[in-house]
Amino acid sequence: MGERTRELFILILGDAVCFTVALWLTLLVRYAEWPSSENLQSHLGPFLLLSALWITIFYIAGLYDKHTLFLKNLLLSRIISTQVINIVAAAILFIVIPFGIAPKTNLVIYLLVSIVLITVWRLFLFNYFSPKNKHKALLIADGSEAVELADEINNNDRYNYSFVRILDYNTVLSTEDFETKLLKVISEEDIKTIVADTRSQHLAEIMPLIFDLSFLRFEFVLLDFNKLYEDTFDHIPLSSLEYEWFVSYISPDSGFIYTFLKRTADILMALFLLIPCAIVFPVVIAAIKLSDRGVIFYTTKRLGQFNQPIDIIKFRTMTGTDNGATTLNTKLEVTRLGRLLRKTRIDELPQLINVLKGDLSFIGPRPELPARAKVYADAIPYYNTRHFIKPGLSGWAQINDYNAPRGEVDIDLTKNKLSYDLYYLKHRSLFLDMQIALKTIATLLMRTGS
């Protein structure tokens, strides 16, 4: 069983146990007696269905994501916000489906007990299932990404190894007889794992030795730095990018079946969502007209697939309109109504027309202003490769990169955002698109409720 599979299995099993124990405790508290088998059986079906629903919501909310240090820092707030959604979902479930029991009091007790159990399990007890005996590892890399990976591995209990030594490329290149000293480090530190960029030119001279020790003598396990970084953080290390990488992993051709199914899903979903929009649009139109009597819709230039300009349709949320194509700054201000429309993403509903036209997909890298994209393309190598595929209303970066630039030009933050976009380009599939769609819904619900 792999590390990620093991973690996911333990989390789901632990949550299921918490929900089951919560039901038993609920009946104990509610009836002030040891729960009888008849009472348990009458409640088991409805509450098992509720537990399955909650586990699904947990997944959508990201509570089954890799437990990196970043996620652990957000865990308590994410549990609380998710449980708020779960309370609403539970109330709807018992209203829609008549189970033949009187669940109101039991449901309230169950919610309170399960919240306590889940919080204790996730924040405290889960750590006891972390690997106890960590292997010693050697990291041969440098740069900010190497520091980030070492910090994550060494300070997070979820991994079964830790870096006891870190050698940068300067040490490798400047040390005489490095091979002998490397063997000494491996022996003295009892190294069981080496993480290195196997394609780096800096390590070209010592790679034959490392290969021999790992694959022929079985002295240690060799892991590729770039793959480990990508698997850990779910985005591409930009230091690994070169022309060969794009030839190997990135192509504007997504395959006929994937392209056909995704386009079909885009059309069907856009048509379906336009049905409730028939009610929402008149209300928004009236609200905009009553607020300042300005124009209702506006179009703004963005870069689409293959760097081709497209016109994006939105509800107006600012005091005026500009297309943003020739300037990076605007003197316009967001209106009071506009803030509400932006927070709920209602201002973007007219983009369903763009989806039907084929300018946008529901899932893909977010389209950028042409003027801003030019700045980024001049400053960030390979930036325009994000335009290989059709842009989308939501993407991998939107649900994972919490530090993405919000309107202003920021080279460093956009580099990080690009690393998520490239991860999507490399791994795009219907399953990944579905995952992004579900987590986008969760993000919108939590944002609307905040």
Automatic annotation (TrEMBL):
Q: Does the keyword Transmembrane helix apply?
A: yes
Q: Where in the cell is it found?
A: Membrane
List each copy of the Bacterial sugar transferase domain by range: 262-445
Example GO CC term: the record gives: membrane
So where does this one cross the membrane? 9-32, 44-64, 84-101, 107-129, 267-288
Where does it primarily localize?
membrane
Keywords attached to this Swiss-Prot or TrEMBL record, sorted alphabetically, are: Membrane, Transferase, Transmembrane, Transmembrane helix
Q: Its membrane topology, per UniProt?
A: Multi-pass membrane protein
Q: Which GO terms describe its molecular function?
A: phosphotransferase activity, for other substituted phosphate groups
**Pfam families xrefs:** Bac_transf
- Record family assignment: Belongs to the bacterial sugar transferase family.
What protein am I looking at? Bacterial sugar transferase domain-containing protein
Question: Which species does the entry assign this protein to?
Answer: Candidatus Kaiserbacteria bacterium RIFCSPHIGHO2_01_FULL_46_22
